[in-house]
Amino acid sequence: MSGGQRLLLENAQQVVLVCAQGEPYLVGEAMRSLAVLENASLVVGRDGCIKAVGLADTIRREFAKVSFEERIDCSGKCILPGLVDAHTHPVWAGDRVHEFAMKLAGATYMDIHQAGGGINFTVEHTQKASEEELFSTFRYRLLCMMRAGSTLVECKSGYGLNLETELKMLRVIERARRELDISISSTYCGAHSVPKGKTPTEAADDIVYNHLPKLKELCQRSEIHVDNIDVFCEKGVFDLHSTRKILQRGKAIGLQINFHGDELHPMKAAELGAELGARAISHLEEVSDAGIAAMATGKCSAVLLPTTAYMLRLKQPQARKMLDEGVIVALGSDFNPNAYCFSMSTVMHLACVNMRMSMSEALAAATINAAYALGRSHTHGSLEVGKQGDLIIINSPRWEHLIYQFGGYQELIEYVVAKGKVV
Length: 423
Ligand code: NIG
Ligand code: FE
What we know:
Elements: E1 5-18, H1 29-32, E2 35-44, E3 50-55, H2 56-62, E4 68-73, E5 78-81, E6 83-85, H3 97-104, H4 109-114, H5 119-128, H6 131-147, E7 150-156, H7 163-179, E8 183-191, H8 200-220, E9 228-233, H9 240-252, E10 256-261, H10 269-276, E11 280-283, H11 289-298, E12 301-304, H12 306-311, H13 319-324, E13 329-331, H14 344-355, H15 359-365, H16 368-373, E14 391-394, H17 401-404, E15 413-418, E16 421-422
Parallel strand pairs: 1-4, 1-5, 6-7, 7-8, 8-9, 9-10, 10-11, 11-12, 12-13
Antiparallel strand pairs: 1-2, 2-3, 5-14, 14-15, 15-16
Helix pairs in contact: 6-7, 8-9, 10-11
Bound molecules: N-(iminomethyl)-L-glutamic acid (NIG) and fe (iii) ion.
Fe (iii) ion binds near residues 87 and 336.
């Protein structure tokens, strides 16, 4: 073999491939028996993609005559895929720590929302913030997420509501997509709340007739890139009818459907998502049995958000039932001013303790299945040859420590490699 390679990670105690056969997602038993190699090494090529992964002896023989730009001795450590955060709201101005105190004193999420706080509070501040200011805090948050092991993150707009601010947010996301090492899946979430002075129907019409055509034009001119369309389908926000209208129009302009549903009230959002061919539905604390069945059949992934149920003391989504019925379960941090958590290892920990997922299931949900929820599992979410060189190295001989340790002990994650680069 001739020509040099970018990076050699050698002699790891464990390399958690997650999957090894090009599976686009894992369900059922496959989530409980992840592909793990003992005493293994991994090679990243100059193109930033995984060139080889296998037993240390085999890789040593195969690459004996090859030069590497960089080598890391991984003895006593584990290599895992970069974590994928399938749901975040990271672009905003306006701190809401005061609302945490209100919630601890007994106010519900909707009490605060209806009193003009919550999303509305963040919208007011985000509308006033400059693009530069938004970029700078967003960049910092992405670096925190990357430090915590996330290498692909879904990022939503949705604190603008008016066209001008929604586009400002999408430009900020686009700039990060182009400038930073972390990979981004961008989501237009103009239907995150109903703007003051509008009815839900008027807001939905504004999105369908004004926002989406403009978005299409900007995407066609490659000024921005948008992957997904989102709606907060909830009682008192967007009902099923408006949600359908917005999502259908989004799909018609080429966006993947990925929306908030069945969170605080049963809305039949899961049934709607499955019918419309949604890639993913988030939250689902109040999903119906029929909704779960429809999602399993329709290969519509469930993005569960353990931080939200925890922060708001909601009933937990029925992760076990979804897993048993073959739903593609993914995880997200839901990072936003209501759930201020950057760390997918904390999210996995909460999913295990509060939603009764096993550690293998949680890792599959935070890697290959989260990548599937974003339509990126052909390039992300597992350590397979040809995929992007996104991975983490933890300073522990057993990979489960990534989930077992909690409370932000980030020294455990010793290296983060994104697009083949040690960051
Ligand atoms: O996913 N539920 C709607 N959206 C967010 C909360 C956003 C906010 O409170 O600012 C969520 O939890
Ligand atoms: Fe959300």
